[in-house]
Amino acid sequence: MQRVVAFYCSFRRLSNSKALLESFLEGALGVDVYVFNLANLSVYACRGCERCFSLGKCVIDDDMKRLYPLLEDVDFIVASFPIYFYGPPSPAKAVIDRCQPFWFRSFVKGEVLKKKRGCLISVGAGSNDNMFVASYYIVKVWFNSLNASLDMHLKFGGLDGEGEALRRTGILEKVRDAGKRFFAYKA
User: Fold this and answer.
1) Which CATH number does the domain housing residue 14 bear?
2) What range does the domain containing 130 cover?
3) pTM given for the model
4) Backbone angles phi, psi at 11, to 5 degrees
5) Taking burial as the number of CB atoms within 10 A of a residue's CB, which of 45, 80, 124, 146 is the most buried?
């Protein structure tokens, strides 16, 4: 059976990124789904010690150890993040930076990691389409280090209020339809 690991990152009870992610994942029929709110995990920042280069794994003992096996073995990765100063929130960026062992294995050692497909759902308060660019490239490079293609990027501006995605007409249906297309696609 195929598997997806899905991340959102919110401290809000009525999280827009969570609501959009849940609607998207309704399309994951017949797929094992693993969902994590990165705001609730204890993931420390990368120290840049490069011990992962010699050991092949990170030496920091925290919740990343739960995520590494999934990031290696899943078929799909979905990230749903709010935009903070044009990038992902700091708990999400810590997870991204801690994937350095995958980058090393792929681009220095030449290992071929399992191929994956990815989707980014970006949520922002503003309405400027440029606010999604930096986050897109950060996630694209992250996915690349995991041998995941960034096949879909859904962008939602003007969602500032807590739970606003739940009240906005048509958004959840649009995301649900995108999820169905994403998981039904066979490369």
Assistant:
1) 3.40.50.360
2) 3-184
3) 0.96
4) -100, -5
5) 80
